[in-house]
Amino acid sequence: TTLSNMTQLLEANLSKRISSHVYLMSFCKKGNRFTIQTDDVEVVFFANQLFSQVYKVELSYRGAVLYSVKAVEGETSHRVTLDLTCAGNIYGNIKALCVVLPVGHRVQQADVEELKFGSGRFTIRDEGVRLLAEIFCFLPSLKHLDLSSNQITSTGATAMAAHMSHLQQLEWLDLSGNDIGEDGATAMNEKLAHLQQLKYLTLTANNTSTNVKKSLLNTLSNMENLSTVKFSTEMASYFTYMYHLDVYNNKGSRLMIEMGAADIVTLANQLFSQVYQVELSCRGRVLYSVKAVEGETSHRVTLDLTCAGNIVDNIKALSVVLPVGHRVQQADVEELKFGSGRFTIRDEGVRLLAEIFCFLPSLKHLD
Fold this sequence. Notes:
Layout: E1 11-13, E2 21-29, E3 32-38, H1 41-50, E4 54-61, E5 64-70, E6 79-83, H2 90-104, E7 111-116, H3 125-134, E8 144-146, H4 154-161, E9 172-174, H5 181-192, E10 200-202, H6 210-220, E11 228-231, E12 241-248, E13 254-259, H7 262-271, E14 274-282, E15 285-291, E16 300-304, H8 311-325, E17 332-337, H9 346-354, E18 365-366
Helix pairs in contact: 1-2, 2-3, 3-4, 4-5, 5-6, 6-7, 7-8, 8-9
């Protein structure tokens, strides 16, 4: 308070020790600019209360700038990408950001659009995501949030969900590779409808039940701008069966759903009335693909289940996806190839195959 009344004072260093995180704030004081450098959280708090005009805020870690915003007269708001992985411990950086962001938010140009965390040596875990969620109110322009592989459980997901309604501009949300569980997914589902600008969502490799997935799909089917959803069961999807369904949601918009589990395929088939593309792949190789093309007559498909994987497993995967693909007008399979090499289908394989004959009315060649 005393320093704020000293008209000739332009700079003050109020650090109490040598610290890794340093806050730099510039204010308007009696017509002059006054800059404070400190590592003391209380100084940041008091300065934010004391000065009515802020024109620059900066957070650094050992000289590397993590966050910086400056008011430039006459300019419109510019966008900021905030990278908390460039230096230091991510969790420590989030704690420091929680201190400085309420000050930086007062600068008109402080529109953070992207937060980067990565999934390397340091993860933010539940406590980090809880702290992050508490500053969502200062991130109204956030568009991209990647929290993949950060050891987040249901505790962190629930804390995050409580503040998600502040993220009105969010377009991209990645929670893959965590373990948000039943409670976390349920809490998220209750708030997802607030994210009306959301275009991309991935919940890959999270432990959730079929009932929770059904509730999520119901919510997502009513989100007009959502274009991509990923529900794969494993991160290393290259080594699993992948199902791609392209459907029309309840708002008439196209939605691509990528799945690695049969139960979600069945749920999606029940929930969405219009399907325009279906694809099944194994280890990156497409086993089956069909797409509705407006104005075209049905085309013929040759389905080769020998191109990748175990043939019996391929038949099992096909039995999941073919009821959906059969709904696409062009899905007329004329030939099935099995061969007689290393893998044979035997009794179990032919039993599974026979159960999907009802979806193969155009089949002409069966070897």
